[in-house]
Design brief:
heterodimer, A: 426 residues, alpha/beta, Rossmann fold, Ubiquitin-like (UB roll), de novo design (two linked rop proteins), 3 domains, four-stranded parallel β-sheet, four-stranded mixed β-sheet, globular, B: 177 residues, alpha+beta, Glutaredoxin, 2 domains, five-stranded mixed β-sheet, 9 helices, elongated, disordered N terminus
Amino acid sequence: MVTKPLTKNIDMTRGPLAIAAYESADGYQSVQVIAGGMSPEAVLQLVRDSGLKGRGGAGFPTGLKWSFVPQGENSPAQKYLVVNADEMEPGTFKDRLLMEGDPHLLIEGMIIASYAIQASMAYLFLRGEYTASERALKKAIGEAYDKGLLGKNILGTGFNLDIVLHTSAGRYICGEETALLNALEGKRATPRAKPPFPQVSGLWGKPTIVNNVETICNLPGILTYGVDWYHGLTKGSDHGSKLFGVSGKVKTPGCWELPLGTPIRELLEDYAGGMRDGLQLKGFLPGGGSTDFMLPEHLDLHLDYAEIASVGSRLATGTMIILDNKTCPVGMVGNLMKFFAHESCGFCTPCRDGLPWVDEIFNEFESGRGNEKDLQILHEHVDYLGPGRTFCALAPGATAPLGSGLKYFAEDFQRHIDEKCCPYKH
Amino acid sequence: MSSANTVKHSDVIASTTTRARKLTAEEIKEIEHEMTLYPDKQAVGLEALKIVQKHQGWVSDESLLGIARYLDIPAADLESVATFFNLVYRHPVGKNVILFCNSVSCWIMGCEGIKDHIKDKLGIDFGETSVSGDFTLIPVPCLGDCDRAPVMMVGEDLHRNLTPEIIDKIVLDYQSN
């Protein structure tokens, strides 16, 4: 029985499977299921029943998202699927593995998602720096067209689908789904007001679903092996398997497909090999740079959306960034603040003006000039830049490591003030 | 005071009919292909910027105006897009662009020391091009290869687990002569 549906074909010591080998490994079976007469409504119901949640960061139920797309005679004939392959969240390196390792899985998933929402056009929005992913996807898309899996009247179903591989030109904000749509339309990638939500009025004003790469890669397994099989994958309360990564000063950093609900300790100690010799775990961001710090005392929690949320953080992308006891937590948060300040799109004031101010204060701390007033301003910005204060989630994302860093590493901030230098450098 | 030979940026944008560079046949062919993939010309604008950059190395004001005129879209709109995206270069760059990841995992793994080594070796900081014209150094958001940090790209190639010794070798491999 397949236990690792996302990575079963991936072996990074060789190139990805060509289409014939992919097909022999149950590849494109889900398209055969559709060709066998499964309706778009039935596909959508299956995905709802699977309990799949979005793997891009927000964790929204995929089937529910799809169900918001208007269907029927009075709905716009043109609908779009957009795949968010703009992986740029600091410390996140999972979608790269899927695209370089098994591009056909993503294409198969895109066919399923497009069919379910009745989109005849799908854009794959790939970050420009992912040149190896681009080469792998181009080849795979070409093979899928040659086999009649893309194009007109796919496998005699009457369903048409074209996939356009769009390589982007940078900027973290493009990962925000409405900013991504603006980028695809050739505009400045500033986020759009919601509502209307993209499901109703998205790309060029048409109903549009934006899904993350890993989310889409879950779909072939659900159709091929069924919902019961999918429900059997997990060890926790959320369904399916997920890619989990660990970076930082551990013995064997990497990215692995594990059941949701796996204990954090198992990921860190058994897979990532534990901390490097002479170092201790001081804290970690569980799912990329926009998540709240967690502490060693949280290691026995499970990699599960609700369980991580119970201690004020988010599972998000599932790629962990490890802080060791010899790396300065103030410096680490400062690095993240510089990133967010640099990547603000500049549209709304709290983010555009607030983040550079926060960044500047971290520079003061780094050079030993930080004071109590600075510390107070940082605390205030956790609120000023928080959820509900800004146009999109970028600045609230920045407040996650900021607020939790101030809380958990208060002593380190204080030492920077008292000792007038970074204590980790002296 | 500007002489007759210098043209202020705003003047160039204002005189869209006189300063535009005529796009090459190859550029036009590729832009026409993109027009089959998107339903309107504005979307093709960003694609055209990338195409021109691929052929010319960067996007000059003259090129930008050439694109705007060819697609019949406002130059100011295209300019606002061109300056927004960090992979569109509005200044000349070296033969090899180094996209240096300075995000959090690379920072933890010591990318600042690697950057200092590049700075010493090539005599350039972020945003600068080496005297030889071989390298331009630009910071880039997380390159998504964090388990092999620190990392950077040179042109289209990704380089991992960087050390000063690896940097020395990369410089030798990519430099002219």
